[in-house]
Design goal:
CATH superfamily of the largest domain: HUPs
CATH topology of the largest domain: Rossmann fold
Distance between the termini: 18 Å
Strand content: 15-25%
Structural class: alpha/beta
CATH class of the largest domain: Alpha Beta
Largest sheet: 10 strands, mixed
Number of strands: 12
Number of helices: 10
């Protein structure tokens, strides 16, 4: 599957330009269409409180967000036009996760930012990456809140355990893997010591023209997510691919340990599928 349709989450947050830079680079590399979805957030106010708030004040707040959206639209269209990227701008009023899920039904990839614990205060979006990887119909690329990635996907680290989520993540990441200089299939605490863990996946990837190498590590006392991130740093990785484990938020969200650890502490872009 080619990467032809990218959905970018946009809002008035401090990380918007960072994830836009990554989305622009991906759109160029893959000759993809880039859709920016600017979310004007609704404020949930209990009925008993709303009775004491002037509706004009609420409307003024929303109007201010719409003005910011117009400024962001101009900057977005200027940058996409300058880079020769096919693009469109959408504005929607509502809740980030629901709107991204709706528009993500017709995209090959959704691009969002990592939660920034020091600045995220909105109940609508502070866990957006975590929520989307559990509910999105398309794979989710999460961009760390620090760092620059001039060519994301040059060297890819695949978190591999043979489970369905990992298999789907590899398939969803194939447009990246086929363009990568090298892909490392990385297994933590493999069950079977009689063969090289990940070797079969490397064979499969080789048939797609992917230069893949299998590696594994054994460490029962260290969190698997921390091991992935440590390996990514040591191997000069600029994209991590892994399955997302856990249940949706609607079922009292429970994230797998490695999944949450990577999302909380990631230092490179991470592509996840559930």
């Amino acid at each position: 599957m080619a990467l032809r349709d990218i959905l970018l989450h946009m809002s008035d947050d401090d990380l918007a330009q960072s994830r836009l830079d990554v989305a622009l680079k991906l759109a160029q590399m893959h000759e993809a269409h880039l859709t920016a979805l600017y979310v004007v957030r609704t404020v949930e106010i209990p009925t008993y409180v709303r009775a004491y708030i002037d509706e004009e004040i609420l409307q003024a707040g929303q109007n201010r967000q719409l003005e910011l959206a117009k400024d962001a639209e101009k900057a977005f269209l200027d940058q996409t036009s300058r880079n020769g990227i096919s693009a469109e701008w959408r504005v929607a009023i509502g809740e980030d996760r629901e709107l991204m899920n709706l528009h993500g039904r017709y995209a090959d990839l959704a691009v969002v930012s990592q939660r920034h614990f020091a600045t995220d205060v909105s109940s609508n979006s502070d866990n957006l990456a975590e929520e989307l990887v559990q509910s999105s119909a398309c794979p989710v690329l999460t961009v760390p809140y620090v760092g620059k990635w001039p060519q994301p996907g040059r060297r890819v680290l695949i978190g591999w355990n043979g489970r369905r989520e990992a298999v789907r993540a590899v398939h969803d990441a194939m447009p990246f893997l086929e363009k990568a200089e090298e892909a490392i299939v990385y297994t933590v605490n493999p069950d079977d010591g009689d063969h090289i863990s990940g070797a079969d996946l490397c064979t499969h990837l080789a048939r797609h023209g992917v230069n893949a190498l299998a590696k594994s590590t054994v460490s029962k006392d260290v969190d698997a997510g921390d091991l992935f991130l440590s390996a990514a740093f040591d191997m000069d990785i600029d994209l991590v691919v892994m399955g997302a484990y856990g249940h949706s938020r609607l079922r009292e969200q429970v994230m797998g340990g490695a999944t949450r650890s990577v999302l909380d502490h990631m230092t490179v872009p991470v592509l996840m599928s559930h």
